[in-house]
Each structure stands twice: as structure tokens, then as C-alpha cells.
């Protein structure tokens, strides 16, 4: 368990990393070329990591940092360090550069291949969603609780998809099948953008269902811990308990997951 002083240090660092981007939000021009976009994204990542790593080095001097590229979708859990930070420098960065809301700073501490602390900070709303394994989930200092809805027609479901759909016809069919079933089951279906914030919103009762078909582990981990600690149900799209190697994620209000299982797409 992290100490209260360590948690306070994390809160300050994550908030500072996010707040530094507020003065430029909607003041910088929207990138118009690939080169402009890539340069802006690289700048965002560098600024964010610098803001996080410096203050956390003193409190966690021996804990290494893994970038998403180092973590990798195909990385086996057994090849990773026993403890490490995994950071999405800005989840929803495309929203930021497009002058849209829905961008966050996501940080997760992994130990023995499990998330033990996670933070998702929304600077525009000044909301810090965070959780520690076995100790519950919070937004700022308020405990999170998922929705208690039971009528599908008043539920709000969201979906995400991983990269590479243009290269994988089978995955496209699976994603389409899942979205079709959401549309046929729930009253409102949306895609809000950043993975972590959508998962945190399920934990907060603002959303009722999150579905992603296709593996996206590094994007799931912070929000997954927060949703689970809040009391949400965390499964695969097939309705089985979620596990490290799963290639899908279904997070719902408690007791709902078993009623939603996408049928296999036709080949």
C-alpha cells in the first residue's frame, strides 16, 4: 500500500502535469499536416513526462518508467519489471490539439503484473480520478460508485476500438458486431474519446457500459483499476472474468455483464 504522503505527491504531480496545458488550450492552431500533428504530439509527451518524472523521482527513486512503446501490446507479463510506472502522457491528445474537451493525464503503478495505483486527471473539469488496489476509488476526495440502473433503455453505453482496423478484416467484423449489439441493447450509445476517462466514468455512475473489442492493454490499465475499485464489473466481451491476456474489455454496472455477450461474427 502506498502511504498517504506518497499518494499526496502523486496527486500534486499529476495535477501539475495536466494543468500546464490549460493556458494553450484552444489558443494554438489546429495542426493541418501530418508533420505538424506529430510535432505537437511529441511536444505534449515530452512536457508531460518531464512534469511527472522529476517530482516522483524522489519519492520512488528505484521505480522505472515504461513508455507505451516499451510496454507493447505483445509484451508478456513475465518479461516486465516487478514494479514500474506506465504513463499515457495525454490520453485523448487528438482532442486537445483539435481544441475539443476530453483529454486527460493517465498514470498507473504496476506491481507483479497488476495495477496497484492509478490516476486519471481531467484538467478542464479539475477532476482527479484515482484508486489504490483494495482501498476503493475516488474523484478528488469523493468515493466513486457505479450506477444502479437495471433498465437497458435508460443506460448509456460507450465503445472504443484499437488501431489497425484497416489491416485486420476479422477484427473489423468483431468491432462492428459489438457496436451493433450495443445499439440494439442500450438507449444511448456513444464514443467519448479517451479510454481511461470513459472507464472512470463507469466507476462514477456517469456511464453504464464500456466495450472494446481488440487488445489495448496499456490504455485500459489506469481506468480498469479505478472502475474495478469503484465496484464496476470487469469482464471480457465474452462475459468471462477479465485477465492479462484478454483481447477485449467489457466494464459495466454490477451484475449487468452476464446479460451482454456479443455473438461471434460470421466469417
Question: How does this model look, in words?
Answer:
The chain is an alpha+beta fold and 267 residues long. It has 2 domains: 4-143, Fructose-1,6-Bisphosphatase, Chain A, domain 1; 152-259, D-Maltodextrin-Binding Protein, domain 2. 34% of the residues lie in helices and 23% in strands. The chain contains 7 helices and 12 strands. It has helices at residues 4-19, 34-59, 68-71, 93-97, 169-185, 195-203, 217-230, and strands at residues 65-66, 83-91, 104-111, 114-122, 127-132, 137-139, 142-143, 156-161, 188-190, 209-213, 233-235, 248-252. Strand 5 and strand 6 (137-139) form a beta hairpin. The chain is globular. It starts with a helix and ends in a 15-residue tail after the last strand. The model has no long low-confidence stretch (mean pLDDT 88).
Summarize the structure.
The chain has 267 residues and is of the alpha+beta class.
What are the SSEs and their pairings?
Blueprint: H1 4-19, H2 34-59, E1 65-66, H3 68-71, E2 83-91, H4 93-97, E3 104-111, E4 114-122, E5 127-132, E6 137-139, E7 142-143, E8 156-161, H5 169-185, E9 188-190, H6 195-203, E10 209-213, H7 217-230, E11 233-235, E12 248-252
Parallel strand pairs: 1-2, 8-9, 8-10
Antiparallel strand pairs: 2-3, 3-4, 4-5, 5-6, 6-7, 10-12, 11-12
Helix pairs in contact: 1-2, 6-7
Protein name: Inositol monophosphatase family protein
Amino acid at each position: 500500500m502506498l502511504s498517504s504522503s506518497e499518494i499526496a505527491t502523486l496527486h500534486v504531480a499529476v495535477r501539475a502535469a495536466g494543468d500546464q496545458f490549460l493556458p494553450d488550450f484552444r489558443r494554438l492552431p489546429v495542426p493541418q499536416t501530418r508533420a505538424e500533428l506529430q510535432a505537437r504530439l511529441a511536444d505534449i509527451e515530452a512536457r508531460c513526462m518531464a512534469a511527472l518524472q522529476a517530482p516522483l523521482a524522489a519519492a520512488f527513486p528505484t521505480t522505472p518508467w515504461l513508455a507505451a512503446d516499451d510496454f507493447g501490446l505483445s509484451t508478456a507479463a513475465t518479461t516486465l519489471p516487478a514494479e514500474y510506472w506506465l504513463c499515457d502522457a495525454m490520453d485523448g491528445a487528438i482532442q486537445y490539439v483539435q481544441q475539443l474537451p476530453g483529454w486527460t493525464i493517465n498514470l498507473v503503478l504496476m506491481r507483479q503484473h497488476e495495477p496497484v495505483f492509478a490516476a486519471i486527471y481531467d484538467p478542464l473539469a479539475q477532476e482527479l480520478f484515482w484508486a489504490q488496489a483494495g482501498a476503493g476509488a475516488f474523484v478528488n476526495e469523493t468515493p466513486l460508485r457505479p450506477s444502479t440502473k437495471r433498465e437497458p433503455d435508460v443506460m448509456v453505453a460507450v465503445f472504443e476500438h484499437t488501431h489497425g482496423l484497416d489491416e485486420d478484416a476479422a477484427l473489423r467484423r468483431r468491432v462492428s458486431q459489438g457496436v451493433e449489439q450495443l445499439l440494439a441493447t442500450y438507449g444511448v450509445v456513444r464514443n467519448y474519446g479517451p479510454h481511461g476517462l470513459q472507464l472512470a466514468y463507469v466507476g462514477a455512475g456517469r456511464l453504464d457500459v464500456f466495450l472494446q473489442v481488440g487488445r489495448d492493454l496499456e490504455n485500459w490499465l489506469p481506468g480498469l483499476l479505478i472502475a474495478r475499485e469503484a465496484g464496476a464489473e470487469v469482464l471480457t466481451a465474452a462475459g468471462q472474468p477479465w485477465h492479462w491476456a484478454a483481447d477485449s474489455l467489457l466494464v459495466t454496472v454490477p451484475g449487468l455483464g452476464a446479460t451482454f455477450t456479443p455473438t461471434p461474427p460470421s466469417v
